[in-house]
Design brief:
This protein is mostly helical. It contains eight helices and no strands. The model has no long low-confidence stretch (mean pLDDT 94).
Length: 202
Amino acid sequence: MDVIDSYGADSLRWFLTTNSSPGQDLRYDEDKIKATWNFINKIWNASRYVLMNTEDLKEINLNDLTSSDKWILTKLNKTIKSVRKSMDKYDFNIVGKELYKFIWEDFCDTYIEYSKVSIDNISTKSCLILVLTDILKMLHPFMPYVTDEIYSSLPIKNSENVILSSYPKYDKAQVYKESEKEIDALISIISSIRNIKAENDI
């Protein structure tokens, strides 16, 4: 109860369900719960950005996708495919790693920054909602409270409550390999330039 008072029930639940392999003992680590609390804050802030920029969206329209839109949809569907496979095997530790990487690195740190360039594009707005919705659905078994709160605020959703919504399914039609290669290469170049700047104190 002290941990829940300090970091919330979702932080504790995520830690308990994703930090050990099946059959292994779990070592309590408050630093990991703190890290989860930061992860939840990251999700909350990303969701605020999405909701602020899509409140006027009436329907999902993916007819004018940018390269970065196609990139995030590809990453999303690869994550869905991997997560469903691990969920079926009760490998929740693998699910946790997959979701953490996709949400923190691909969605929050990369795609949201790219989306600011084309935020007036209906397809980009639609993409933001689509990806956030599927993130909330995949996270819900591990973080029921925060995901339910955010889901209830979405302008477009296929169910009134996230727990009654259908779990995301892999959609091959939303996999764009060329756009994925293009944006991955761009990310690699940006990362290399930043490393050179840091090493040379520029």
